[in-house]
Amino acid sequence: ENLLTDIHNDFQQLPNPSQYILTTAVFASKTQVDNFTQAGGNWQTVANAVTSVDLMAYDFHGQFDVGGGASSITNFLSNQSVAATDPLGSSDFSVENAVAAYEAAGFRADQIVVGIPAYTRMEAGTGETDQNHGLFVPLAGDQPAGEYGAGVTDYKCLINQTYCNNYTLPA
Questions:
Q1: What confidence score (pLDDT) does residue 133 get?
Q2: Which of 56, 60, 62 is nearest to 81 (CA)?
Q3: Fewest CB within 10 A of the end CB: N or C in the chain?
Q4: Which residues touch 87 (CB under 8 Å, ≥6 apart)?
Q5: For 109-165, what is each residue's pLDDT tens digit?
């Protein structure tokens, strides 16, 4: 927060300071908002210093959940809200919960930018006959590597495999 305040103050000393914008990327999680506050951080100070915060509203779930106990199930990569059928329904990982947390911390709605993924995280072992179409089922231990590791592949590769950089999508 001190760095952001210092940069903001430096911008104010320049001619036409309103032409400059200052943003910061932040976790999209109420827990992380609370952790920053509990560690002595002041979100209102950040809100006063920046033009906007960019919520990293992606990677809520993925192959990294394998072996994570109850969370070791398939779930939305970037969900708007917590699904009513989500067995981990108490999770604060949703766009709605994150936006509400930052608004409660002192940010105006017009300061909040929601980032969405332009890639996918592939998950294997979900089966095709599951009633949830592969959602909220246990993750297999053997997951596809992906173009960039851990099942990560660009969206452009999914829609046109000529953009896959010599990577072949799994069947």
A1: 67
A2: 60
A3: C
A4: 70, 73, 136
A5: 999 999 877 777 666 665 565 566 667 777 666 667 777 776 777 778 778 877 777
165 Cβ neighbours under 8 A, 6+ residues apart: 147, 157
Q: Which amino acid, residue 135?
A: L
> Using an 8 Å Cβ cutoff, are 48 and 54 in contact?
no
- The enclosing H or E element of 76 equals none
Distance CA 122, CA 115 (A): 19
Q: Is there a contact between 114 and 99 (Cβ–Cβ < 8 Å)?
A: yes
> pTM for this one?
0.74
Q: Which of 135, 123, 118, 117 is nearest to 60 (CA)?
A: 117
- The answer for residues whose C-beta is within 8 angstroms of residue 3's C-beta and 6 or more apart is none
Contact assessment for residue 31 and residue 59, using Cβ atoms and an 8 Å cutoff: no
Q: Report the C-alpha gap between 28 and 88 in whole angstroms.
A: 17
Retrieve residue 49's tokens.
């210093």
CB 93 within 8 A of CB 79: yes
d(CA 139, CA 154): 21
With b for 16 or more beta-carbon neighbours within 10 A and e for fewer, the 65-78 pattern comes to: bbeeeebebbbbbb
